[in-house]
Amino acid sequence: MRTPSLIILAAALCACAPSTPEAPPAKAPEAKPVPAAAADKPAEPVAAAPAKEVPEGDCGDQSAVAADQRVANTARWTTASEQNNFGFDVFRGDAQTGPFTKLTKEPILGAGTSDETHKYEYRDDSIDPCKDYWYYVEGITTSGSHERFTPTFHAPAKRRARGSAATPAPANPPAPAAVDARQ
């Protein structure tokens, strides 16, 4: 089976808080395909960024908050090229091993067949800002087959409950390694 894209350049997750301007994200270095032999080797250790404190705030359902004011996780991914790509679905779970629930009501449309770079994103504002979540993206071919497109990636809690003890935020993990999606 042919997957919708040849190479994933980056998959990242970030917090969106419209009430606080954010610094522009650092540009991810262009990734290169991972040789099959190297894919089984453990990643080299990366120096962790210094931990920062998770801010206090309201937890729980945000449905009463205006959509543009909600705290959200935004999944972003980039393709170097695409072949017979109809689109993508985004899945979320409360644990790294799932279970996962499909978030996209309709697929995020892909570029079909293209040798150009394309960037995609999905904003999930249905989160509890005090919970960790895990996400992955599934590709859909023009023939209708579905296949996991990204590894599972983690979005740490954006807030801690008001009055709870301060804890440092987890250090930002490095972006997932490039994934050679050819089979």
Characteristic key phrases:
12 strands, Immunoglobulin-like, 4-stranded antiparallel sheet, 2% helix, 37% strand, elongated, 183 residues, mainly beta, 6-stranded antiparallel sheet, disordered N terminus, 1 helix
Q: In CATH, what is the class?
A: Mainly Beta
The low-confidence parts are 1-47, 174-183
Proper CATH architecture: Sandwich
Major sheet size, sense and barrel closure? 6 strands, antiparallel
Instruction: Tally the structural domains.
Output: 1
Helix content: under 10%
Beta-strand fraction estimate: 35-45%
The CATH superfamily is identified as: Immunoglobulins
Oligomeric state of shown chains: single chain
What's the N-to-C terminus distance? 7 Å
Overall 3D form:
elongated
How many strands? 12
Task: Give the helices and strands as they follow along the chain.
Answer: EHEEEEEEEEEEE
Round the Cα radius of gyration to an integer and report it: 17 Å
Number of helices: 1
**Which structural class matches the secondary elements?**
mainly beta
CATH topology: Immunoglobulin-like
Let me know the average pLDDT: 73
Describe the structure.
- With 183 residues, this protein is mostly beta strands.
- It starts with 6 loop residues before the first strand and ends with a strand.
- The strands form 3 sheets. Strands 4, 5, 6, 8, 9 and 10 form a 6-stranded antiparallel beta sheet that branches. The chain has a 4-stranded antiparallel beta sheet with strand order 7-3-1-12, with no helix packed on it. Strands 2-11 form a two-stranded parallel ribbon.
- A hairpin with a 6-residue loop joins strand 4 (82-93) and strand 5.
- It is elongated.
- It has one helix spanning 36-39, and strands at residues 7-16, 56-57, 72-79, 82-93, 100-102, 108-114, 118-124, 133-141, 146-148, 153-155, 160-161, 179-180.
- Helices cover 2% and strands 37% of the residues.
- The chain contains 1 helix and 12 strands.
- It has a single domain (7-21, 58-172), classed as Immunoglobulins (Immunoglobulin-like).
